[in-house]
Automatic annotation (TrEMBL):
This is DNA polymerase III subunit delta'. Residues 241-327 form the DNA polymerase III delta subunit C-terminal domain. PANTHER family: DNA POLYMERASE III SUBUNIT DELTA, REPLICATION FACTOR C / DNA POLYMERASE III GAMMA-TAU SUBUNIT. GO terms for molecular function: 3'-5' exonuclease activity; DNA binding; DNA-directed DNA polymerase activity. Its EC number is 2.7.7.7. The gene is holB. It catalyses: DNA(n) + a 2'-deoxyribonucleoside 5'-triphosphate = DNA(n+1) + diphosphate. Transmembrane segments: none annotated. It comes from the Bacteria. InterPro entries: DNA_pol_HolB, DNA_pol_III_delta_C, DNA_Rep/Repair_Clamp_Loader, P-loop_NTPase. GO terms for biological process: DNA-templated DNA replication. GO terms for cellular component: DNA polymerase III complex. NCBIfam families: holB, PRK08058.1. Keywords: DNA replication, DNA-directed DNA polymerase, Nucleotidyltransferase, Transferase.
Length: 329
């Protein structure tokens, strides 16, 4: 989303609130953008920064081509600061560095703009330090906090921000967008179950890694059914070498969850909701015979627990070994 008119098509209420504030020159000193992954938080924050700093703005729309707009796009504008989690959290030292930056006057204007991405990951010390900016805002400072889970952001921060709710994208509309980009319907349905970020979905559809991930996921489930003694060998020789990074490991668990949901849907005659398998698939019918409804519900709970462990930085190989034992048990 490069313009406010494009934002209005996807997030009409958020666009209206922010553009009205720009037009009236009454921007809040702090915003909290809350919404699921892919709802446009980063893009809207970036666009807001451009609308503030662009010298050639037309109404609310930045020109996108001036020196300021290009530097904001590249992350090199000296008065626009982005703070992101360092591994799993935003640390006190990152906020201290931001505070130091704010002791200097604006290098290219009299304004400052900063974004806290993943605001729910602020440590207690970091959150307490950021409160100083929010409690005693400089007149020419705009803060934007981004989060997927506003309830995990401490209440003192929430109370000092104007909260902007970003709505989930309409599933069918998103699938149609993917199809318009040349992605076949079954893949579009799968991608829409994993992300609602258009650029990310298109990139995955073109990446052989994703196709191989889907293949390995089906192989693992089949091996649990047919060759349980070889599962650990498969994990170490095929699964872990393919799912190397944390984000990839989470995608692998997401794919497993969708597949086991398919098996459960087939049990309860909801075959119109299948995502991984297709109706009448022999593999699916065999898996329905192998896994009971009770067992499938237990597996889905174990998969959720495995995802939590990954986020808690538990060793991913250990997580997968425990998970497969639990599925087999």
């Amino acid at each position: 989303m490069k313009t406010w008119s494009q934002v209005a098509e996807v997030q009409p209420l958020a666009s209206k609130i922010i553009t009205n504030s720009i037009n009236r020159d009454r921007l809040s000193h702090a915003y909290l953008f809350q919404g699921e992954r892919g709802t446009g938080k980063d893009e809207i924050a970036l666009l807001l920064a451009k609308s503030i700093f662009c010298p050639n703005r037309s109404d609310v729309e930045p020109c996108q081509d001036c020196h300021a707009c290009r530097r904001i796009d590249s992350g090199n504008h000296p008065d626009v600061h982005w703070i992101e989690p360092d591994t799993l959290s935003i640390r006190k030292e990152q906020i201290e560095h931001l505070q130091k930056e704010f002791t200097y006057s604006g290098l290219e204007s009299d304004r400052k703009f900063y974004v806290i991405k993943g605001a729910e990951t602020l440590t207690v010390n970091a959150a307490n330090r950021i409160l100083k900016f929010l409690e005693e805002p400089a007149t020419q400072t705009t803060a934007v906090m981004l989060t997927e889970n506003s309830q995990a952001v401490i209440s003192t921060i929430r109370s000092r921000c104007q909260i902007i709710d970003l709505k989930p994208l309409h599933l069918k509309a998103f699938q149609n967008q993917l199809i318009e980009h040349g992605i076949n319907r079954s893949t579009a349905v799968l991608l829409s179950a994993l992300t609602n970020n258009l650029n990310e979905a298109i990139a995955w559809s073109e990446d052989d890694w994703f196709a191989q991930a889907r293949k390995r996921m089906v192989q693992l489930i089949e091996m649990i059914r047919v060759n349980p003694d070889d599962v650990f060998l498969f994990l170490h020789q095929e699964w872990m070498p393919h799912f190397k990074e944390r984000a990839q490991q989470e995608r692998g668990l997401d794919l497993l969850m969708l597949a086991f949901k398919d098996i459960l849907y087939c049990h309860i005659d909801k075959e119109e909701d299948l995502i991984i398998f297709s109706k009448g698939d022999e593999k699916l019918e065999n898996l329905v015979m192998f896994f009971s409804q009770e067992k499938l519900l237990d597996i889905l709970n174990k998969l959720l627990d495995a995802k939590r462990k990954l986020k808690q930085n538990v060793n991913p190989t250990l997580v997968m070994e425990q998970l497969t034992v639990q599925i087999q048990g």
